[in-house]
Structures are given as C-alpha cells and as structure tokens.
Amino acid sequence: MSVVLGFAPFIVFFVLMRLATPVAGLAAAFIVSAILMARIWRRGDRVKILEIGSLILFGALTLFTLVTSPDWSIGGVRLVVDGGLTLISLLSQALGRPFTLQYAKEKVPKQYWDSLGGLAGAAGFTRWYGDRVRRSIPVTI
Q1: Could you tell me the residue range of the domain that residue 83 belongs to?
Q2: Of 96, 94, 3, 102, which is closest to residue 49 (Cα–Cα)?
C-alpha cells in the first residue's frame, strides 16, 4: 500500500471537517481507517504504524466526541488531530521504525536500504515532518 493511501483518513478528515462538521470529518476518517485495515488484513499485508495509529486516533476521537459532545472548533480539532499524527510520527521514530520507512521498504530494492537516497531519506522525511508539525503547534493555538 502506498503512503498516500496511508494518509487517506487524514485527507478525508480535513476535507469533511471543512465541508461539513468536525464530527463528520472524524467519523468518516475512522470509517476510512477501518476499511483500510480490513483491506490490509484480507490481503495478508503487514500492518503499518501509520494505519494502526490512524485507526486508534480517529476511533478514540470519534468515540470521545459521541460520548462527551464537545463543541469542537475547526482549530481545536485540527490541533488534536495534528498532535495525534505527530505522536504517531514520534512513536514510530522511538520504536526505530519511522512510518515512512515501512512504505519505502515495499518499493526500494533491499540493496539500497542503507544508502542515503534509499531508506535513510524516508526516515529523514518522518523526522522532518514531526519537527515541522511540532513547530507549527504554537501558531495553531
């Protein structure tokens, strides 16, 4: 599965959050995450940190929203979702398996895994993304 497909729940969330409501965006992102996980399991593919994290993030936020009925502002729900994606990124790095690296290993031949342009570039992207989001959080608040 491609990294773009792995980000599909986030894309759906951001589109529906703007076109409908933050709650609709959260629920739709959870449904997309669940469909992606079902597809992965049915095909026998390896489950990646981004997909697990997305399912947990959007499932927990949807459940929290249905139970507590918070009055989500667009900025507030974006902050929480961006924070969740940052947490996924940081956890994947702490585990030594940056989430972009998992996708790159599916596409890059094994002999290039240790080269700077190979998998090291994917790990660098994960670090760069996590740092970019971390720096943007004070601006969002």
Answers
A1: 3-140
A2: 102
